[in-house]
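Reply to dn_fold:

You asked what the input looked like. This is it:
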Amino acid sequence: MLDISRSSIKKLISLICLFVILDIMVLALNFMLTVQLEQDAREINIAGRQRMLSQEIGKTVLLLDLHLKAGEYTKVAVELDKLQYATEVFDQTLRSFDEGGTTPDAAGVKVPIRAVEGAIARRVVDAAMHLWLPWHASIVTFLAGRPTINTHATTALIEKTVQTNDDVRLLMNTLTIYLESDSKNAAQNIRYFQGLTFVFALLNFVFIIRQFFSHLALTRAGKRFLEKIVNNVDVAILMTKQGHIVSCNQSAEEIFSRSKDVMLGLQIDSLLEKGDRCSKVILPPSSNVKKVTYVEVSTKEVRLNGEIFLIYTVADISSQKVIETYLSELAFIDPLTDLCNRQMVDRRLKQEINRCSHESAIFSLLFIDLDGFKQVNDQYGHDLGDQVLKNVAQLLTNTVRQSDVVGRLGGDEFLVICSHASAKGVEELASKLIERICSLTTVDGCEICLGASIGIATYPADGDTAQLLRKNADKAMYAAKSKGKGCYCLVADI
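and this is what came back:
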């Protein structure tokens, strides 16, 4: 195992996380400053509006008195509406500055107002409330007298307005000034924290860069070391734990028929088709190589900067695979006729039974025994007898369909597994086989007299296992012989 600076990776990740946190803090402070300034600007504007509203109230009260004395009652009604609106807005806004609440803006939309918190601003609001409440009560009482308001009522209100209006207007002007001052102080504090956070983020960024280049240098050194290992192995591939190739040597390029540039980034599964005991090389579509390459793969796990890599060592075992395949085939091939032997016939019978049981299909088994073969052996010897068996095997193979299976059980006994055929088709095939075997009259210049008896068993009617089907087909074959040979017999006809 190769472990290079795992602690440096953890430190780098920690610094990056810290940088992200500081960056988020700067963004949060920017957002806070924006919200703070928007709220302060709104409240400063509304405080300035209070000064104008108090002036508007005083002006409206004086105009009411003039219009009443002149008998201009239409104008009196207009001024009363103005007075009522200005009084309600001023009262609601001042109470919001005192306790927190809402007030309509210039468009009539209610906006939130925070209760003032500064010590001086707090005293200004308290003083304004002390002056405003009696004045507000006088205005409310005056407006309640509509529509019987007269000059006597306005005279009392004018006196109260003259006593209070200037002081309230001055206090609202003072509130605006202190709100502006508090806003500047709050914004300055936020900017101070912004600057401090930015400095920390900048220093952290410098640390990250230093750690990154240090880590990069170690990584490059480690990868060079791994590549040296790869290049010193006959056929080797370096890849990530997820199976992505990151390097390979020249021998790997040759065995996989791909350049290194093409192989980088590929998944190992795109190069190897895994089997039970070995893997087969998957050649690219553009390759002209016809040979199938089998390889044996061993894996070595290494660690670089905390990351796991795999070194695949590949050994070409194609020659060994060819020998194994040949030996495996010999175990299931009749050495004289090259037909399936008894073991292979049993295996193919079981496969056909499984297929038909799932598909609810049928197939037939033909048991063939040569008539007159013993006389050929006795007359001409075993060498000619072996040649006769070879000719019969070739004849059977050429007569049946490509999907059928022909096998030799031993001696002069043969089997044919006939799938996907009707009962009539199987009987026609049996007749044709007998006819062609009987037509085999000369072998290597020697005249012979040969025939065949065939027993036919059908799955599943005549047996649902390989052993039972073969046994019943054998019985049917002997029944055919007892009828005089040179014919076929069905199990159902026994």
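The chain has a mean pLDDT of 82.
Hope that clears it up.
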